[in-house]
Amino acid sequence: MSKVKAAILGSGNIGTDLMYKILKNDGAMELALVAGIDPESEGLARAREAGIEASHEGIDAILADPEIRIVFDATSAKAHIQNAEKLEAAGKMAIDLTPASVGPYLVPPVNLDDHLEAKNVNMVSCAGQATAPLVYAVSRVVPVHYAEMIATVASRAIGPGTRQNVDEFTRTTANALMKVGGAKTARAIPVFNPAEPPITMTNTVYTVIQEKDFDFDEIKKSIREMVEDVSEYVPGYRLKGEPMLDERDTPWGRLPVVVIMNEVEGEGDFFPKYAGNLDIMTASARKVGELYASHFLQKEEVRQ
Amino acid sequence: MKAPRITDTTLRDGAHAISYSFTEEQVREIVGGLDRAGVPVIEVSHGAGLNGSTIQQGFSKTPEFDLIRAAVETAEHSKIASLFVPGIGTSEELRKAVEIGIRVIRVAVHCTEADVTEQYIRLAKELGIEAVGFLMMSHTQPAEVLAEQAKLMESYGADCVYVVDSAGALVPEGVRERVSALKEALSIEVGFHAHNNLGLAIGNSIAALEAGADQIDGTVRALGAGAGNAPTEVLVAALNKMDLNTGIDLSKMMDLSEEVIVPIMPGPIVIDRDNLSSGYAGVYNSFLLHVRHAAEKYQINPTEIMEELGKRQAIAGQEDWILDVALELAEKKKALV
């Protein structure tokens, strides 16, 4: 069976980890090129070492190959805004790992089917990938009036881009809890913990429910199923303890709150295992690429 | 030694102790009292800083911008300040607070994460207000690390950087080392914020002054998170005895403490078992009420929760770990029965 050619744009840490994930999972994609802009970059050297073509010509190298159909952009929000136009003009599908949000947010087990024909999709943020599925798992059973999530990540696993713009991170993640997770309102709060040895990413999700009648067992079942769906492509994604039903004083009165605690351990492909926050970005992006590649191949089969 | 500038943070740190229930009326009364007594800076916001009203921290009973507005309207001489924790607050809340009339923002981060403050310190300076860097949980890092972090804040434009003993875990020697290191490294002012878990809030504040601190925090009647802070009125009295004139009227402070603050307090703030174990384990003071709640719910000794949080190196903003720890301890206990 023929495969769909894909390329990674950006040879930094995210691009490199993503490369290893694509190489280790045999599927409908073939990684044809890793393109960066620094000829000395470790990521390009690693690509060559793995037998993958590497170029320091950046986006131009990708545009020069008409066979490349899927492009993972692991550069920066600013760069992606320019890349997005060029990729679209060239008829290439963009999977955006930057915070640019040119295309719709995509969280694989929740809304992939809504965007099957999209030309550009955005991978939200690490905390968004980790917690929007949990909020959705509740909201598909009973409406969520307010969702709040606390993402605790190791300081060492937070890059300078996020550090210089915490506003963007909190806004993007809260938006994803509403748009993808289905919460009516939402807050997202990151905590960067410098503990040594570094801590594994942990997330706590609170969902406030206004309805009087709902079946908590049904919610728990929905959460378990969702965790299973995510762990299929992020093996270190799991619940910490059972989801709990609590009652809290809120601005909307004393209301039931479902508390979900979750942990994300990385696979250790390029990032250390504690950096589950980075791992879930690359693992989700790979999953999305794989699903689009299969979709492209299916469409072609139908046509033939 | 020169007299420090005193910032009273009863209406911010004290909010933790009364579960974020300050009313507009109380704010007017307390700000009025502090202003008349001559306290130069009064901090008002949710205990966790602007926008801190959340499930994680506890919701404010009155919207904090209403409280800040009441404070700004009441103060005649004092500057109104707010606390700001990046990630809890965003630029939007900072802008709004400045619009209402705060004149000082204290940007607080865990003491290794100063680079996260750049966006907000720069914004505060653009908006024309004073910016103070607040290095929380300072006991966890040696003096050199704190000095490096403080220098980052200075480079973003901070007017002052505080050594913050959030856990009340420092002893005078540790305070001196840290404040001295900052004084040496920086050309801006240095401040100190104490908690009283080891009974050292006043002593540590004096040690900070001896090491050159320019600004000191207090709360009336020690009304602050956990074991409380250096009581502002006691600080003023001690400084008077040292011939350091803060310009604050001691008798007006004592009246405010007795007549206005005590009636608001659920009880006196003392160094009980929970507060001592918290300080001894180096745990963030605002965890106290959350720990007590979890301990009661899962029938565990609060000391055990404090010790485990200390071991896990929990930092500010991690109230969710309390539940996680309590559940794990409860499971362990069940397994033993």
From TrEMBL, chain A:
Catalysed reactions listed for this entry: acetaldehyde + NAD(+) + CoA = acetyl-CoA + NADH + H(+)
Active-site residues (renumbered)? C126 (acyl-thioester intermediate)
Which keywords annotate this record? Aromatic hydrocarbons catabolism, NAD, Oxidoreductase
Annotated Semialdehyde dehydrogenase NAD-binding domain residues:
5-118
Cite the EC number: 1.2.1.10
Gene3D superfamilies, A to Z: Dihydrodipicolinate Reductase, domain 2, NAD(P)-binding Rossmann-like Domain
GO molecular function terms noted in the UniProt entry? acetaldehyde dehydrogenase (acetylating) activity; NAD binding
What domain of life does the UniProt record list for this protein's source? Bacteria
Q: Which CDD domains match?
A: ALDH_C
**List of residues binding NAD(+):** S11, G12, N13, I14, N277
- HAMAP family from the UniProt entry: Ac_ald_DH_ac
> What's this protein's family per the entry?
Belongs to the acetaldehyde dehydrogenase family.
Q: What is this protein called?
A: Acetaldehyde dehydrogenase
Automatic annotation (TrEMBL), chain B:
Q: What is this protein called?
A: 4-hydroxy-2-oxovalerate aldolase
The EC designation for this entry is: 4.1.3.39
One family from Pfam that matches here is DmpG_comm
Q: Which NCBIfam families match?
A: 4OH_2_O_val_ald, PRK08195.1
Q: Any idea where the Pyruvate carboxyltransferase domain is?
A: 4-254
Source organism of the structure: Bhargavaea cecembensis
Locate the active site. Answer: H16
Q: State whether keyword Lyase applies.
A: yes
